[in-house]
Amino acid sequence: MTRKQRRGVMIGGSVIVLMVAGLLVLTALRDTIVFFHTPSDIQAKKVQPGQRFRLGGLVQDGSIKRGTGTDVGFAVTDKGSTIEVTYRGILPDLFREGQGVVAEGKIDDTGIFRADTVLAKHDENYMPPEVAKALKEQGLWQHGKDGAPAATKSDAANGVAKP
Q1: 45 and 36 in contact (C-beta within 8 Å)?
Q2: CA atoms within 13 A on the CB side of 76
């Protein structure tokens, strides 16, 4: 084999190894690349208890129940399905019913999501883009008071979705 042929074989072999490595990484991360799962996703995928993930949706109206100390329970909904959430800690100042929320934690054996982190919207016009997209896909996107879509093109370009 000539020097030129050996070089070609080495380059070709390297490209193949890199492609296989990339494919393995993408396959391993297939389900974890998502920023969060909606309650409907959780029920459809039948997530196993103990598996860590992010749950996103809207805080269901009338579902916030304060416990002793910093314990709080609430429900997260995507208007199709609902999951009960418990959290021990200080909630963000802007956390309230009817607003977008993303909680990180695990589902226990009883089907309750045990959150260890809760993230809320950052101002009155913001909803996490992933939550807004999920609501649009389900046909539950709310329009502005004047009948026009609540999010503008400039908002979409900046990654901001308004409810």
Answers
A1: no
A2: 32
Token pair belonging to 115: 């959150």
Which backbone phi and psi does 159 adopt, to 5 degrees? 80, 20
Give the tokens for residue 94: 């802007």
Provide the whole-model pTM: 0.57
Evaluate whether 96 touches 105 at the Cβ level (below 8 Å).
Answer: no
User: Own/partner pairs for 90-94, CB < 8 Å, 24+ apart?
Assistant: 91/118, 91/120, 92/118, 92/119, 92/120, 93/120, 94/120, 94/121, 94/122, 94/123
Q: Tell me the C-alpha distance between 101 and 138, whole Å.
A: 17
Instruction: Taking the CA atoms of 137, 124, 36 and 57 in sequence, report the sign of the dihedral they define.
Output: negative
| Per-residue confidence (pLDDT) for residue 153, from 0 to 100 | 39
Q: Are strands 113-120 and 82-88 parallel, antiparallel or unpaired?
A: parallel
**Per-residue pLDDT tens for 118-139?**
888 655 555 667 777 777 777 7
Residues written for the chain: 163
Q: Which residues contact 77 (CB under 8 A, 6 or more apart)?
A: 39, 57, 58, 59, 60, 83
Contact between 149 and 162 (Cβ < 8 Å) = no
Structure tokens at 140: 């539950």
Task: Inform me whether the pLDDT recorded for 111 exceeds 80.
Answer: yes
| pLDDT value of residue 45 | 81
Q: How far from each other are the two terminal CA atoms of the chain, in whole angstroms?
A: 66
